[in-house]
Amino acid sequence: MRASLFSAALVAALVGFGSTIALVLAAAAAVGATPAQTASWVLAIALAKALGSAALSSWARVPMVLAWSTPGAALVAATHGLTMEQAAGAFVLSGLMIAALGLIRPLGRLVARIPDAIAAGMLAGVLLPFCLKLAPAAAEAPALLGPMILAFALVRLRNPAWAVLAALAVGLGLAVLTGAAHLPGGASLPQLVFVRPQFDPGVAVGLALPLALVTMASQNLPGFATVRAAGYEPPVGPALASTGLLSAVAGLFGAHPISMAAITAAICLGDDVHPDRAQRWKVGLAYAGMWVALGLASPVVIAAIAALPPSLVAGIVGIALLGPLTGALTGAVSHSATRLPAVVTLAVTASGVAAFGIGAAFWGLVAGLALHGLDQAAGKLRAA
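The chain above was modelled as a monomer; its predicted structure follows.
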C-alpha cells in the first residue's frame, strides 16, 4: 500500500488518541475502575475501533474510520456513585440501543424526531462543567497551563486538528522538565479483563440512554456527514449495527461505546491520502493497525497521564473539549424556535442534578422536550 495511507492513518490515530485519552481515564476513575480494568477499557475500545474500521472499510469499499465516543466519555466522567459493573451494564445496553437504531428503522426515525438543538443542548450541558475547570486549573498551575494554552491557541491557527495534541505534548514536556511528573518505567502488555455487567434500571435510563443519544447526535451523524461530504455514500444501517454490537462486546471488558469519527475521518478522506478514490478505502486497514498498536502501548500512556498533576489533567481535558463544546453550543442556539428548550436542556444537564437514581442528562432531555412540546401545542392553538 502507498505510504500516504499509513501517514494519514498515523496522524488520525494520534490525534484521536492523544487529544481525549485523559478524558477516557477520567471516566474510568469516575466509576471506580481498577488499574487493570482501566487498561482493559482502553485495549478493548482500541481493538473494537480497529476491527470495525477494517471490516466496514473492506466490506463497503468506503473509508470508514471509527472513534470512541468523546461526549460519551465526558458523560461517564460526570457521573457519581456508579460502580464499574453498573457502568459496564450501561455500556452494553447503549451499544445494543445503537445497533437497534441501525437494524430497526422505526427506532431510528423516533430518535431522529428529537430536535437537533435539544440534543446539542444536552451535549453542551455534559461538556460545559469540564471546560469550566480550565480557568481554575490555569490559576492553580500557571507555569504549566499557560504555555500549554498558548501552544493550543497558536497551533490551531495553522492546523486545528493538531492543536490539542500540541497542547498535550507541551504539558507533558513541562511536567517532566519541572519535576511535576516523571516518565513511567517499563510496562507489561495490557490484558482484557471481563467485567460482569450489572443492569440497573436507573442507570439504564440515566446513563445508557443518554450515552446512546449523545453518541448518535454528536458523533455518528456528523461522521456520516463527513463521509458524504468527501463524495462517498456510507452504509448507515450496517455501520450503526456493527459499531453498536462491537460496543456491546467491548462493554463486557469495561469500554464505553465506539462511533463514527468526524474530525479524524476528515484526515483520512482527502486526495493526498490516495489519488485513486476507489483505493482510498484501504486507509481503514492502516488505521486499524495503528489502533491495535496504540491499544497495546496504552499502559505506558496511562502511567504517564496518571503521574501528571491533577490541574494539568483538568487543563488537558478542558482544552480538548473546547471544540466539541463550541459545536454543541452553536447547534443549541442556532434556531430561534428551539433556542429556549435547548438552553433549558443545557442548564438542567450541566447542573448535575440526579433524581430517582437517574442522571442529569436524562432530566435535561426531558425538560427540553417538555418545553418544546408545550411551545408546539401553544403554536397550534394560536394558529387554530
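The longest helix spans residues 201-229.
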